[in-house]
What does this fold into?
Amino acid sequence: MAEKGKKDIGKTRVAIVGVGFVLGVLLLVFGAGGGEKTQVKADDAAEYRSVVEKELVSLCENMLGEKVDVFVSLESGYGYSYALDSRGGVMTVGSGSSESALVERVDMPRVSGVGVVYFGETNLETEKKLLGLISSSLGIGTNKIFIIGAKKA
It folds into this structure.
């Protein structure tokens, strides 16, 4: 009878180790997901886009002395990377209902394209200067910028 009890204890230990192993794998695969970027509301990105557009309008109008319309496209909104603890979980600050994740880095929205309509004399030299101004201001390639002159209304 004592031998049967030892077999039961051995099976129980194997079962516990097996369950622990499965739980460990599940935690690794479906864990807190720390360090991943998440995006915030689109309204915040829209506000950022509006600020960038206004700055570009100001730059271009100062260069040309003419009215300019600008549209900016964004790849995404703000991205956040969160600080991780020693076990790979997301670190938090505060307690209770005021607890929040500790932000390690904030990535600004990335500009994916710019469209510009200027209402001055249409010529290649002006468009080339605008292209250089916008490209260097935003740090994007000239292939992401479209400029066109329009007749005054």
